[in-house]
TrEMBL record:
It comes from the Eukaryota. Keywords: ATP-binding, Kinase, Nucleotide-binding, Serine/threonine-protein kinase, Transferase. The lineage of its organism: Eukaryota, Discoba, Euglenozoa, Euglenida, Spirocuta. Transmembrane segments: none annotated. PANTHER family: CAMK FAMILY PROTEIN KINASE (PTHR44899), SERINE_THREONINE-PROTEIN KINASE NEK1 (PTHR44899:SF3). This is non-specific serine/threonine protein kinase. One of its GO terms (molecular function) is ATP binding. Residues 1-128 form the Protein kinase domain. Its EC number is 2.7.11.1. It catalyses: L-seryl-[protein] + ATP = O-phospho-L-seryl-[protein] + ADP + H(+); L-threonyl-[protein] + ATP = O-phospho-L-threonyl-[protein] + ADP + H(+).
């Protein structure tokens, strides 16, 4: 997943809808990223986007607040995907979109069970 995002970003492309449903396993066990329907090619590595697109549970605070965003938003989504893979739950859950925005902007997500995974892995998830 990380290599796929790195490849996209090195080619100045934002995925903008990175989530577990867009990660596929090939017949030989490799992971592939899919659903590039809302991907955006930037003109430079420091360029930004501002359109609000994607799946709310994986959106970064910048997107949910209508601010400009860059490659870092895909990394935020990667953190949400890793959290989901480790816990089998979405990092941010809420009864409606407004409550979800508040949780994401405030960074209120449950913790990964520390006894199940290394501190390096859980630290990586929270840094993303």
């Amino acid at each position: 997943m990380v290599l796929g995002l790195d490849y996209m970003h090195s080619n100045k492309t934002l995925h903008r809808d990175f989530k577990t449903q867009n990660v596929f396993v090939t017949g030989d066990g490799r992971l592939q990223l899919g659903d590039f329907g809302i991907a955006r090619v930037l003109t430079a590595t420091h360029d930004v986007a501002s359109t609000i697109l994607g799946t709310p549970m994986y959106m970064s605070p910048e997107i949910l607040q209508g601010e400009e965003y860059s490659y870092k938003t895909d990394m935020w989504s990667l953190g949400c995907v890793l959290f989901e893979l480790l816990t089998q739950k979405h990092a941010f859950q809420a009864r409606d979109i407004n409550s979800l925005v508040v949780k994401v902007v405030c960074g209120k997500c449950p913790s990964v069970p520390p006894s199940r995974y290394s501190t390096h892995l859980t630290s990586l998830v929270y840094r993303l």
